[in-house]
Amino acid sequence: SATWNGIPLKHVSLITLTFQNSALILIMHYSRIMPPVNGQRYFASTAVFLNEVIKLGLSLTLALYDISNTAPPNTPATTLFSSLWATVFAGDSWKLAIPAMLYTLQNTLQYVAVSNLDAATFQVTYQLKILTTALFSVMMLGRTLSMRRWVSLVLLMLGIAIVQLPAEEEALDMSSLKDAQPKFYFPRTMEQLRDLGSTAAAQLVKRSATYEGIKEDVAEEHPQLNGSVGLMAVIAACVLSGLAGVYFEKVLKDSNASATVWVRNVQLSFYSLFPALFIGVLFKDGEEIAKTGFFAGYNWVVWTAITFQAMGGVVVALVVNYADNIAKNFATSISIILSFIASVFFFDMTISSNFLVGTAIVLFATYLYSSYDRRRSPPIHIAEYEKTTIE
């Protein structure tokens, strides 16, 4: 019944989630394939770290607001901060460091995936996390799945496999080659020759007098998508998502302390800072960052992607509070369709029958998995504290 400017918050949260999902994937993908900023492409490790910093700030603000609503009027700010500190670090909250580390690694793999897959293919394939979450819930929580859900999981794998099939190459029409003439350009004047030499010299921006490193320069300027690397990154991210989510729920079930969704987000973001900083920024890219700088390769596109990713956890929490899981999956399905349409227009994505058929099967499997089942087991409540930023 909650409204915002007369509009039900259920509808507002679902529309926001749909837009956030679609826009985030597209912006992240473009940020990884766009021309380098000042000859430098940004490090994914710095983006993951800044994402956690921004998310921690947002979660702290909302958690403090939540506490202030339940506190007596005119409560000092120091008292509110003390209450929040005691709630965040109460009991066995340190156990959340394990799922926080898994989520951080998952976010890193997402950057690897969007760097090697187009936005629509990534988003469809990423629905594989439904399968991994279900399997880990059976193994770790002892849940039982109905026959309908097992069928939906099989359909999900089938649809994703069809999406990953290479498109059939068009048959080469030999008759079209009869009139084809090779096109060569021969400079006929000294001015044309000088222009041609100037153009060739301008292309060798970083290297001169040697061919060493030219492949690296070309790959930096024009990154090529590697479908195999992207697929492996998505599968690994889905496995980590399922494992972290189910482990997170197990910790919550075994814990006697109760906390709001905003406090849980604070805990996860806080413990995520350490692996993001020490493993990602310092250990993995520390040497290169020391040479080029922490914010090398950053522009408004990169900052937009980081901000959208940080807002993902907040949007998911709003959807869980004001809508339901079925509506959430419906919003995710709509975002997949929007990402597909946008990829065709903005990234010249090739429409293949494999992708259309596979996507349709994945959308149907998602609907079938989340649809009402009279004999279904108690619902999985992982989404209530889900930290995953891409749905």
TrEMBL record:
<keyword id="KW-1133">Transmembrane helix</keyword>
<keyword id="KW-0472">Membrane</keyword>
<feature type="transmembrane region" description="Helical">
    <location>
        <begin position="353"/>
        <end position="370"/>
    </location>
</feature>
<feature type="transmembrane region" description="Helical">
    <location>
        <begin position="303"/>
        <end position="323"/>
    </location>
</feature>
<keyword id="KW-0812">Transmembrane</keyword>
<dbReference type="InterPro" id="IPR007271">
    <property type="entry name" value="Nuc_sug_transpt"/>
</dbReference>
<dbReference type="Pfam" id="PF04142">
    <property type="entry name" value="Nuc_sug_transp"/>
</dbReference>
<keyword id="KW-0762">Sugar transport</keyword>
<dbReference type="InterPro" id="IPR037185">
    <property type="entry name" value="EmrE-like"/>
</dbReference>
<feature type="transmembrane region" description="Helical">
    <location>
        <begin position="261"/>
        <end position="283"/>
    </location>
</feature>
<feature type="transmembrane region" description="Helical">
    <location>
        <begin position="149"/>
        <end position="167"/>
    </location>
</feature>
<dbReference type="GO" id="GO:0000139">
    <property type="term" value="C:Golgi membrane"/>
</dbReference>
<keyword id="KW-0813">Transport</keyword>
<protein>
    <submittedName>
        <fullName>Nucleotide-sugar transporter-domain-containing protein</fullName>
    </submittedName>
</protein>
<feature type="transmembrane region" description="Helical">
    <location>
        <begin position="330"/>
        <end position="347"/>
    </location>
</feature>
<feature type="transmembrane region" description="Helical">
    <location>
        <begin position="229"/>
        <end position="249"/>
    </location>
</feature>
<dbReference type="GO" id="GO:0015165">
    <property type="term" value="F:pyrimidine nucleotide-sugar transmembrane transporter activity"/>
</dbReference>
